[in-house]
Design goal:
- With 190 residues, the protein is of the alpha+beta class.
- It has one domain (15-181).
- The strands form two sheets. Strands 4-5-6-7-8-9 form a six-stranded mixed β-sheet, with helices on one face. It has a three-stranded antiparallel β-sheet with strand order 1-2-3, with no helix packed on it.
- The chain is globular.
- The chain starts with 14 loop residues before the first helix and ends in a 9-residue tail after the last strand.
- The protein has helices at residues 15-26, 108-121, 158-161, and strands spanning 32-38, 41-47, 53-59, 65-68, 71-83, 91-100, 128-132, 166-172, 175-181.
- A hairpin with a 2-residue loop joins strand 4 (65-68) and strand 5 (71-83).
- The protein contains three helices and nine strands.
């Protein structure tokens, strides 16, 4: 099950614009809950009025946290992302955002293994997987400005963020194709 939650919806914005939006939206968060089922497991995730979050396993394992091949991960977001396929006819595909626990362990092999793992559990055509070693998906247009279920703390400055690696994984004939991305440094983004 995927929720259609609006992300930023834009790709060309400055860090200051993002930070202003983040500050404004995070100050207005209210109660919200979502129930996510992946494979034979389901978990209810709640954000209370106080800002505290809670996860309740309904069935099987907690879908938001786990380990694949020795790599601990947190599933931060499930959303639907519009894409323009080769046929030029827009379609909507599911997308997930994953944070890996140990910063220095994110590499192409880890990204590929995590992507294939989720592809095997989520039978949705076109599943896209975005992986980072932190919970800041600032330049990903489908990730919300503020994820109400993630207690991420203060946002990093652009200089710190631009040093963090992301992997964008899409389906391929061999399972998945993961591309490494480092945010582009420009005067506009600063």
């Amino acid at each position: 099950m995927f929720l259609l939650r609006s992300g930023k919806g834009i790709t060309d914005y400055s860090y200051q614009y993002w930070h202003d939006q983040y500050s404004d939206i995070s100050s207005r968060l209210s109660e919200i809950a979502e129930l996510v089922k992946i494979g034979d497991s389901a978990t209810l995730r709640i954000r209370w009025k106080t800002g505290a979050t809670e996860e309740i396993r309904i069935l099987g394992e907690n879908v938001f946290h786990g380990q694949v091949g020795g790599q601990r991960y947190d599933l931060l977001e499930l959303t639907l992302r519009p894409v323009l396929p080769h046929s030029r006819r827009p379609e909507i595909v599911p997308s997930i955002a994953i944070k890996v626990e140990e910063e220095g362990t994110l590499n192409a092999a880890t990204a590929d293994e995590l992507s294939n793992y989720f592809r095997s559990r989520i039978s949705a055509r076109g599943l896209q997987v975005v992986i980072r070693s932190d919970s800041w998906f600032i330049d990903d247009e489908s990730y919300p400005y503020v994820n109400p279920f993630v207690e991420a703390g203060d946002p990093p400055g652009w200089g710190t963020y631009e040093q963090t690696i992301s992997y964008y994984c899409k389906p391929s004939q061999l399972g998945s194709a993961c591309n490494r991305s480092i945010p582009i440094v420009s005067e506009q983004k600063k």
